[in-house]
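Final paragraph of the annual report: two paired records, presented back to back.
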Amino acid sequence: MDRADLTLGPLSEQDHVFYGLVWAGTTLAARVDRELARVHGLPLSWFEVMLWLNGQSEPVAASDLGAKTMLSRSQVSRVVDALAARGLVSRTSSASDARSVRIELTEQGRAAFAEADATRRAVLAPVFTDRLDEADVAALETVWRKLKA
């Protein structure tokens, strides 16, 4: 059976750009997720939490992770539990709030993140990084700043 040549029909430039962003985000995230899981046993959601933790010099509250990641509070909690079970993060009680727990990458977690990040870069290179020049990167950075504001 032949495949139908489907189109989205006439779209405004804004609609085309929106669906392009959705397609790019979904496609690139799926590629990275598959490879991180295959090579490192790390789903993209785990990697995202590790990414934020890697950038911190002090332990952070789980609620702060939830505010920064694209994960719900319960998802963050499950991810932190899974990372802790693998020895990639540690939990400490907050000195200022006994009900709060602070989380940080362990040394093993930092090493695992570095390896996974190298994999992420390798996966993205042929389909993203290598295809963009400095002007493309600058344009995307401008767009992200505007959309995040």
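The closing record of the year follows.
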Amino acid sequence: MSAPRHTTTLAAFLLGLAMLLSGCSGEKPHWNGKDISGVMPDLEFRLRSVQGDTVTPGDSAGQVRILFFGYTSCPDVCPTTLAYLHQVLEKMPAEARDDVTALFISVDPKRDTPERLGSYVSYFDSHIVGLTGSEDTLRKLAKRYRTTFGYGDADNDGNYAVSHSSAIYVFDGKGRIRLLLKQDMPQQQAAEDLTRLARQDLS
């Protein structure tokens, strides 16, 4: 026995209303990391790869990009962060992991030669790409993303420290800023965010 027509019509109306209200709620999706969508400019740079080639965001278009400033002589923050990112990437499903590229931008171009930078990033993960540029280019890029860096005094051996941000920026496949991650965030949570973002870009 079929349901009365008015009952069926009412059910369809209520279902449509629920979908409409859900679509108009304006509720933002939940992320484990800090959602900073729209608060910074899109991904834009012109840097030098470890092979000496010019690299722009267009070379990795469609990929989720993780951006981190540092330098290879960093005694703590950089190796810890890159090891953290490696563990995060390892926790992602393989198909999503291949749609993520981490950009390690050296702000120490004087010491970080292409050979040194290439060897450094390859030690951590094949999904991590080393980039650098002139000091002027790097300062403009750092300013674009509301950060800075500075050089300490050199010792007798010419060694010096470089102060820099520990922020981990995440851009989607279209180069739009989406998330800010921190090292104290559980690796699984960061992996979930990156996986979700990668799958959104594929849909």
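The beta strands are 34-35, 47-49, 54-55, 64-70, 100-106, 128-132, 150-151, 162-163, 168-171, 177-181. This concludes the annual technical report; the extension proposal builds directly on these records.
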